[in-house]
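Re: that chain you flagged

S.,

Sorry for the slow reply, it's been a week of failed gels. I finally had a moment to sit down with the sequence you sent. For the record, here it is as I used it:
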Amino acid sequence: MNVLIVEDEVSLARELEIFLNGANYICETSHNGKSASEKIAVNLYDFILLDLGLPDCDGLDLLKKIKTHNAEAACLILTARTEVNDRIKGLDLGADDYLPKPFSMLELQSRMQAITRRKFGLKHTIINLGEFVIDMNERSITHNGNTVSAITKKEYDLIAYLILHKNRTLTRPQLSEHIWGSVVNDDYDSNYIDVHIKNIRKKLSVYAQPEWLETVRGLGYKIKM
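Prediction finished late last night. Pasting the structure tokens below so you have them in one place:
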């Protein structure tokens, strides 16, 4: 999933980026409101981590722009401010949660996972798909208790992202942008999404046919649940 980190404290921004990259997020960083505004105007993000105390603007004003240009992005406010009113304003403007500084990276990850479950209506982290069981927290796929170890990290990311958007067709550019952090042109030469899907099916079919992973001809892919 794509994450934009808006944090003026360079060391903290770098720490966040390293931690989230290790947790399989794709990260970009902005250290001021101007840079963040430019990014949210042209890119789509799944998550935006927003520091309110930016050097060139109020984070609450930037939050309004986020909701205009990236309305689907989940927004988690990171703040050293102690005023309850600022937190209330942020939530009223559409922020999904706030985390006071200093905070634990593990708590940040837990908050992001909780927001994701709420956003996509995912009541449970254990998902049953045909004969397969997907554990969204452990990032694992099993069949009759046996781990499907051949699935790569990116292949798992594809499956997990399709699960979040269950029953909805996602195009190759959408999958590319949110899994790899870049957009692939939807033409005959840009088929690496198709190659990954083909590999997923091949690896899973050793155990059982993944009939829940559907190709929508001319459009993209979806998981039917």
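What I noticed first: The chain is about 40% helix and 20% strand.

Talk soon,
D.
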